[in-house]
Amino acid sequence: MDFGFTEEQEILRNMAAKFFEKECPYDKVRELEESDLGYSPEMWSKMAELGWMGVLFPEEYGGYGGQFADIALIMEEMGKAAFPSPFFSTVIQCGLIILEGGSEEQKSDLLGRIAEGSLIMALAQFEEEGSYLPAGIRLNAGLQGDHYVLNGTKMFVMDANVADKLIVLARAGDSGITLFLVDAKDPGITITKMRTIAMDNNCEVVFKEVTVPKDHILGEPGKGWEILEKIGPKAAVAKSAEMVGGCRICIDKSIDYAKERVQYGKPIGGYQIIQHYMANMLLAYDTTYNYLYKVVWMIDQGTDVTLEASAVKAALNEQYKFISERAIQVHGAIGTSREYDTGLFYRRAKASEYVLGDTGYHYERVARGLGL
Questions:
Q1: CA distance 201 to 194
Q2: For residue 3, what pLDDT is reported?
Q3: Closest-CA residue to 313 (of 250, 372, 232)
Q4: Average pLDDT score over the chain
Q5: What is the average pLDDT across 313-339?
Q6: pLDDT grade, residue 1 (50/70/90)?
Q7: How far apart are CA 266 and CA 151, in angstroms?
Q8: Helix 68-81 to helix 272-300 angle, to the nearest 10 degrees?
Q9: pLDDT computed for residue 248 by the predictor
Q10: What torsion do the CA atoms of 127, 314, 194, 52 make, to the nearest 10 degrees?
């Protein structure tokens, strides 16, 4: 097994790191967090020009046919930059769903537009009870002639406020859970941005008599949850790559601060308690980082990583919180303020836990994978 990166992948990593350092320093991140859009269309266009939107997609659909390791490296650098954008919603979640369940016509159209940066998408999955299970899908899709009519509410829809199209999970009568491709600007849709700890683009989306033609279904009626389950492990690993990037920056910034902050006549890094904090943070990071890229390697080998993806997401849910909390403690309470960058990651660590499954959810999936 070779978990090393190719020369091209190292170039990609360095390119991404330099891009975020130049285009989106942490002061810019704060500015974008406080904006209505929550991201920069100019940066989005530049990312598209670099080809990042099409890395996951085959060439016949306008992409570059890259490896999963390529997208993991980009996500890791995004995590280091605390970069706000609809990349995960559009390219990872919706892109993988279209690849898995879309028709050839849908793939050619939608993936090509995503790859060129002209289409932003969002996945409308969760509802008021916030369940990760199919029983939590209650939004109704009633069949009326040659179209469906959607009524109900979706919660925590990331980037719905800037999306052109939504992929909506709804119950289509006797068929069951179905994936619908919906115009986000439909007059029957009301989108309200929610106030969250991460200051991100989580939205409430209300559907009232929204008409969707039959040919706007992704996959077959009733197969929506099956498609979601197939793409879930890869999406969870991609999110984990973003989270591990945040872990690294928390460590680096804590080291710098511990060397600079003088208390009782010497830098606080000279005290044993801080040294032990840093040692534990590094151990937590190294363990999850190396396991993450083992799972990434397995994906590129075509291995089923259902169990491993849940294991790594559960681990990073906890370790990202642990590392960012320790970073705050090293900085003192002032680390949570807007003045200090550690606060960006502390807030994202908590929010990231609930994306694609919290720790308890993934523990249960691991247990089932072990036959328990």
A1: 7
A2: 66
A3: 232
A4: 95
A5: 92
A6: low
A7: 63
A8: 150
A9: 98
A10: -110
Sequence letter at residue 143 = L
For residues 14 and 6, what is the distance between their CA atoms, to the nearest angstrom? 12
Q: Which of 166, 171, 167 is nearest to 139 (CA)?
A: 171
Token pair for 93? 């979640």
CB 69 within 8 A of CB 9: yes
Q: Which distant-in-sequence residues (6+ apart) come within 8 Å of 50 by Cβ?
A: 15, 19
**Beta-carbon count within 10 A of 129 CB:** 10
Which two structure tokens, joined as six digits, stand for 32? 């974008």
CA distances in angstroms from 252 to 103, 248, 327, 348, listed in the order given: 45, 6, 9, 17
Query: Above 80 in pLDDT, residue 2?
Result: no
Give me the pLDDT at residue 198, please: 80
Q: What's the pLDDT score for residue 150? A: 97
CA distances from 270 to 12, 258, 267, 331 (A): 37, 8, 6, 14
Task: Say if residues 45 and 86 touch (Cβ distance below 8 Å).
Answer: no
Report the candidate in 90, 108, 114 with the shortest Cα–Cα distance to residue 162. Answer: 90
pLDDT at 56 over 80: yes
Would you state the pLDDT for residue 367? 95
Q: How confident is the model at residue 226 (pLDDT cuts 50, 70, 90)?
A: very high
Evaluate whether 206 touches 153 at the Cβ level (below 8 Å). Answer: yes
- The separation between CA 234 and the C-alpha centre of its own chain, rounded to angstroms, equals 11
**DSSP track, 266-325:** EEGGGSHHHHHHHHHHHHHHHHHHHHHHHHHHHHHTT---HHHHHHHHHHHHHHHHHHHH
Q: Which helix (H) or strand (E) holds 140?
A: strand 140-144
What percent of the chain is modeled with pLDDT above 70? Answer: 99
Tokens of residue 252, six digits: 């680096």
pLDDT at 340: 86
Determine phi and psi for 39, rounding to 5 degrees: -160, 175
Do 88 and 75 touch, CB atoms closer than 8 A? yes
Distance CA(287)–CA(248), nearest Å, equals 12
